[in-house]
Amino acid sequence: MLTIGAHMSVAKGYVRMGRETLETGANTLQFFARNPRGAKARTPDERELRTFAGLIGENGLRCVVAHAPYTMNACSPDGHLRELAAEMMAGDLKVMEYFPGNFYNFHPGSHVGQGVRTAVVQIADVLNKVLYPELRTTVLLETMAGKGTEVGRSFEELREIIDRVKLAEKVGVCMDSCHMWDAGYDIAENLDGVLQEFDKVIGLCRLKAFHLNDSLNERGSRKDRHALLGEGKIGMKALMNIVAHPRLCSLPFILETPTDTAGHAAEIQRVKELLGEYGL
Ligand code: FE
Ligand code: FE
Ligand code: ZN
User: Full-prediction pTM beyond 0.90?
Assistant: First the structure.
């Protein structure tokens, strides 16, 4: 069964967000665990979180993915900012425990000139600070486009981080089709090859979620500009090959395309229709 949803706004509360998600025909969703541009967390009350947890499972939401704020940088050259990253992550993971068994996705960070060697150690340090044995959330490293000094453009960089995490069983990976394309991976013409490489370097068992986006730019551009499905350089056929791929089809697919809730509902409908043509 296809698990698909979109990035939703939590601004009007968790319960409203959950209901809106179900109305779009989605059975999963992603949301920012706090204001994406800042550090300030909207503190949800416990009752709201419990009602939202009820929507997951009982009402057909199969899983949820929380996304860390873009501003969080676990490999900042500034030690205070790295500490802040650990605090934010720990706080978000506390909220995630109200609906256990789900995912918390974050961008590994930007090394800002320190170099990848230093950065992977710092990112692993933050994870080693916040992960604990009883945690029931899997923390996902997102594959990045390689814009500026972004870490996580290659599978090898993600592997370097995971290798240094003590509770590595709590860590997984979220692929982003726009980011991988912009990073240079040919997911359109050589999806099997890319997956084989991921399996060799990281292991497909670590792949837990997929951000389904088209890209405005050519492969290898390192730009990270998302496009509507089928309206970018990756194209609808390649994106559908991802959704229908036997090693990927059971993952939660999250749209982060530049449109509103109604637009996402239409895209979800379109993916479902096209998937029918694959006999899935
Ligand atoms: Fe992201
Ligand atoms: Fe993404
Ligand atoms: Zn992106």
Answer: yes
